[in-house]
Amino acid sequence: MSAASRIPVLIIGAGPVGVTAALLLARHGVRSIVLERHRDVYPLPRAVVVDDEIRRILQSVGVHEEFAAIARPARGLRLLDARRRVIAEFPRSAHGRHGFPQTSMFDQPELERLLRQALARRPECELRGGVEAVSVTQDIEGPNGSAGPVRVAFRRDGSDEVEHIWADAVLGCDGAGSLTRDAIGAVWEDLHFEESWRVIDVRTSRRVRTWEGAEQICCPTRPATFMRVGEDRYRWEFRLPGHEPLDGPEGLDRLRELVAPWVDLPADASSCDDFEVIRQAQYTFRARLADRWHQSRVFLLGDAAHLTPPFIGQGLCAGLRDAHNLTWKLARVLQQGADDALLDTYQSERKPHARHLIRVAVTVGWAMTGGQDRAAAIRRAVVGTACRIPGVAAAVGRDLSPALTAGPLVRRRPRLVGRVLAGTSCPQPWVITDGRRMRLDDVLGEDFAVLTTVAPTPHVTAVATALGARVIRVDELDDDGTLAAWLSRGRSDAVLLRPDRVVMDTVPAGTGDFTDTAAWAPLMHTARRSAEGRPATLPRSTTR
């Protein structure tokens, strides 16, 4: 193995998750190569919705302004009965806590082009198209049999020759049929949802009856999903058997019948030149979760790690959260010598979150169809009734991104008063600094940060110095009061924000110390070094 053939990170798969991971690593100065068997972006629509947290991630990789030009805010989600009466509504605000609309519709190929253009501008990143990975192997080195670099074998398009490249870490963003998942011996856990659906993407100038949000038709015989994606772009999803055609004379008649609640088509649908079916594809919607998400420094992200029914629009969102959670930790290990145990928190934090979202999606799916087993009718009635209970719909809508569970990087104190902040994301208001109006993350930068409402104590200053964190007084940002109110509700004088803007620790009001640095300090102890070259030491908390 030559030095030229070993790189810090190899990413398998250049979909949105893989390219976003490469861009996030580049922000931290980590070089990566992305292998993709296709030479260009897959041209047909797939994912069509992201939330405000994902738009914040797109902000961090520098494509949020371009994305805003191709995105369309949506009003939320409605569950309707077979007669299209509203069962429940999950409203989504045009101004979410992350600083963007809570729901945005878009065309995936357009997003992928934006991401690849951003990738081409980063010298730390290289995309190799027309290259297919064929094996992933963890090499062993040293007399004690410790893990060495990861060896990836690949073939170039049109060649039978197998080449190799070695990496300090490999990210498997290679989809549901993941080669990487097989390589680490991970297997699927079945979360008990599997249905065959037809997805139909349409471009039309005809008048379409829509409330500018997604609609889920809860009907055991003909469940459906409808949403407006763009100015003249719409998507329908119907539970149909794979053998039922929707093209040809008979198929077009069937299609006209299916879309009739939303749009009127002429009796001879074949003569309708202002209703173009861009794509129709048969999908099996599944709910699955990989039992392990990494082995040593080989990781699974996106559909390689989890599969969810699309009913709450969180499939792509979950994959981009994976990238956001993992990349800063990997950069800290590779560049600053942090303990490899830091990487174990990727699975412990992301897997429960993904499981939660899959369960919410399955619940909505059951509300739509009730499933297809003997208990279907009972389950459908129970779910439908629950959705009518005041507050339930709002709670589900709020809970799409719940707080991370307590762990080494999420320190919680007993909830005596106030709201628990640790494990939640910091809100992102517009702020004014140096006379400029900016989004908060553009002020915080890409590393750790401390937000405080009081003068930092020596303890807080020492923690910030050891982590290389900026200390920012909230009252100096001249925001609209969002941050001060948020800290007040959490009964905290200050918070320590991770690079992914999750609250890692808090300074309880009046104490002056973070809650528990002893728990996470060992993972970070080599992050900054003193002038003599020794690892910087994080002070122990006195708060209990």
Number of helices: 14
**Structural class given helices, strands, pairing?**
alpha+beta
Kindly report the average pLDDT value. 87
Task: Note the beta-strand portion.
Answer: 25-35%
Largest sheet: 8 strands, mixed
Instruction: Give the N-to-C terminal Cα separation.
Output: 51 Å
Morphology: globular
Topology (SSEs and partners):
Blueprint: E1 6-12, H1 16-27, E2 32-36, E3 49-51, H2 52-60, H3 64-70, E4 72-73, E5 76-80, E6 86-91, E7 103-105, H4 108-120, E8 125-129, E9 131-141, E10 146-156, E11 162-172, H5 179-183, E12 188-204, E13 214-217, E14 224-228, E15 233-238, H6 248-259, E16 275-290, E17 294-295, E18 298-300, E19 306-307, H7 315-336, H8 341-369, H9 376-388, H10 392-398, E20 430-433, E21 436-439, H11 440-444, E22 449-452, H12 458-467, E23 470-473, H13 482-489, E24 492-497, E25 503-508, H14 517-524
Parallel strand pairs: 1-2, 1-11, 2-8, 5-13, 11-18, 22-23
Antiparallel strand pairs: 3-7, 4-7, 5-6, 9-10, 10-11, 12-15, 12-16, 13-14, 14-15, 16-19, 17-18, 20-21, 22-24, 24-25
Helix pairs in contact: 1-4, 1-7, 7-8, 8-9
